[in-house]
Amino acid sequence: MKALVYTGVEELTYTDRPRPEAGEDEALVRIMASGICGSDMHAYLGHDPRRPAPLTLGHEAAGVVVGGPQDGRRVTINPLVACQACNYCSSGRENLCQRRQIISMPPREGAFADYVAMPSRNLITVPEAVPLKHAALAEPIACGWHGVRLGRSVLGGDLSGARAVVIGGGAIGVGAALSLAAQGAQDIMLVEPNETRRARLADVAGFEVCAPGEPAMPGQGSADIVIDGVGDAGTRETASMIARPGGVIVHIGLGEATGGLDIRRMTLQEITFIGTYTYTSEDFAQTTAAIFDGRLGRLDWIEERPLAEGHAAFQDIRAGCVAAPKIILTPDHGGTET
Predict the structure, then answer these.
(1) Of 20, 45, 146, 222, whose CB has the highest number of CB atoms within 10 Å?
(2) What is the pLDDT at residue 117?
(3) Is 288 a domain residue?
């Protein structure tokens, strides 16, 4: 089969790889759509020791089951494979399982390929009316859905009167903003520095979009909930400044490890900080349901490119010239639907 393989720092090679074989309780999925994630970009730049070369990246995917009793089933993939036996798994917090695996990290190859093998329990059926390129967005949006759910619980469960600010207009930020709206928030501001991307986001879902430093930028202590979808020192500094007393910061981004938080202000103003990683199985299921019933909007903020041209897509993302929050790579299966 063909795959886009990370072969070294800033090197991706479209090449032949062995076709995976489905093990016990697994299914072989023909990948029809796979999104480029920020963590794929971190690996491409050599910043993620968890993803050593050579490795097939990609974990945001949807496709069609090939062979076996599920043959032809259209599915979206929960890429996080938990042990199902530990206390975290038993309590519904599979994302904290200490034996978890995820495709695109050893020992599991990723979904920038023609096929991937996955446990059947990690597959959710996609209705015929839903394009698989939209179903592939379940993974990045589920990260935001999970974070919003955790932040909402701190604020008493009701976001209808909350002022929400999302920092970062990539797929994680956009997914978080859409999740905020789907979970009841009505006053949502998305902060994005890239002018090209801001123009694309202005009509995505009706929420406001601004650049850092603009007059519309929320002021100190004005936000009930702040979601940092970037995770740099600068965005953490902004988050800890604009969160209101008693508010909550939900930190999803993994841009850099340290710096930025105003710990003194957060302590004196009792601002809750939540670090959030991926999602639970229930979060993933709720996200797919929201995609399928239209609560997350048209999902037309993606750009499709052939998997064979994936290296150029990575280069364009790094150069900052991609307006769409998400690029979806599509393997060549002879024109089959995505």
Answers:
(1) 146
(2) 97
(3) no
Q: How confident is the model at residue 335 (pLDDT cuts 50, 70, 90)?
A: low
Which of 3, 4, 6 is closest to 48 using CA atoms? 6
Element (H, E) at 12: strand 11-16
CB-neighbour burial class of residue 263 (10 A; exposed 0-12, middle 13-18, buried 19+): exposed
207 belongs to a structural domain: yes
By residue range, what is the domain housing residue 84? 2-137+299-330
Same domain for 45 and 8? Answer: yes
Residue 165 neighbours by CB under 8 Å, 6+ apart: 188, 189, 190, 191, 218, 223, 225, 226, 227, 242
Rounded distance between C-alpha atoms, residue 248 and residue 234, angstroms? 17
The domain total for the chain is 2
Task: Please indicate, yes or no, if residue 282 is contained in any of the structural domains.
Answer: no
To 5 degrees, how large is the angle CA 120–CA 301–CA 57? 45
Hey, CA dihedral for 223, 228, 234, 237, is it positive or negative? positive
Distance (Å, whole) CA 7 – CA 43: 10
Mean pLDDT, the chain, integer: 95
The answer to whether 110 touches 55, Cβ cutoff 8 Å, is: yes
Domain CATH code at residue 244: 3.40.50.720
- pTM (whole model) above 0.85: yes
Same domain flag for 28 and 43 = yes
